[in-house]
Specification:
Layout: E1 8-13, H1 28-42, E2 47-52, H2 60-65, H3 70-94, E3 99-103, E4 112-113, H4 116-124, E5 128-132, H5 142-152, E6 157-162, E7 167-168, E8 180-181, E9 183-185, H6 186-191, H7 199-207, E10 212-216, H8 222-227, E11 234-237
Parallel strand pairs: 1-2, 1-6, 2-5, 3-4, 3-5, 6-10, 9-11
Antiparallel strand pairs: 7-8, 10-11
Helix pairs in contact: 1-3, 5-7
Length: 238
């Protein structure tokens, strides 16, 4: 059997990956399906770290629209990511995947504090590490947290999981002529204003030469094929 091309990845998930069809809340069936997908590459011997968003539980923009303080809204979002991390960790453990949750905001009763060396050690021991609470700082998205953690743990690839099969020059849902990029440079993605990751995350990846693959996680075997080196979705690189 062929060996994976990538041996350590960081997988960025949206909170909606845990939600039911209405994109709200945590659905146990969605968590189980996601856990099975992650296990399919875990079983290949790939070391996996995860960063998950909170869009299924809380959207800070809605709070801001009602006059909420930005820092408060962002801290609420960070706490929501921890809820998602715990739910996913539980689903992974139930399918036999050894998992640890680490958080950028200390809450030792439910998770370990994020410590880079400890996270790497967990990965080396064959544990999936779920990194919650973003960077621990307001004004930074979970995209930026994913880029930062990918660099810190020496990941070989950052995978942005979406419900679209790559990066397009327009919204494929509303524009049937939208063109999908198989490969695009960081600077092109930034200059074109393509909403793949936020600008801070893209810039961070560009400066540190961290390749990004944007793919549809729900396309059969898309993640597995990617870690094996097949072209799936869109590759963003130098």
């Amino acid at each position: 059997m062929a060996s994976p091309k990538y041996h350590r990845i960081l997988l960025k998930l949206g909170g909606e990956s845990l939600a039911a069809k209405d994109n709200f809340g945590i659905d146990p069936h969605s968590a189980d399906s996601l856990a099975a997908t992650i296990k399919s590459i875990y079983d290949l011997g790939v070391e996996i770290a995860l960063v998950i968003g909170a869009g299924n539980l809380w959207r800070g923009k809605e709070g801001l629209a009602q006059g909420m303080d930005r820092t408060t809204a962002d801290h609420m979002g960070m706490l929501a990511t921890v809820m998602n991390a715990l739910a996913l960790a539980d689903a992974l453990k139930r399918v036999g995947v050894d998992t640890r949750v680490q958080t950028a905001i200390e809450m030792r009763a439910v998770a370990e504090p994020y410590i880079r060396g400890r996270a790497i050690r967990h990965l080396e021991k064959g544990r999936v590490v779920i990194l919650g609470a973003g960077t621990g700082n307001p004004y930074f998205t979970t995209d930026t947290a994913a880029a930062l953690r990918a660099m810190e743990i020496d990941a070989e690839l950052l995978v942005k999981a979406t419900k679209v099969d790559g990066v397009y020059d327009a919204d494929p849902k509303s524009d049937p002529t939208a063109k999908r990029f198989e490969r695009i440079s960081y600077i092109e993605a930034i200059n074109k204003g393509l909403k793949v990751l936020d600008g801070t995350a893209l810039t961070l990846c560009m400066e540190n030469k961290m390749p990004i693959v944007v793919l549809n996680l729900w396309q059969e075997n898309s993640l597995k094929n990617t870690v094996m080196g097949e072209t799936m979705g869109t590759l963003i690189t130098q």
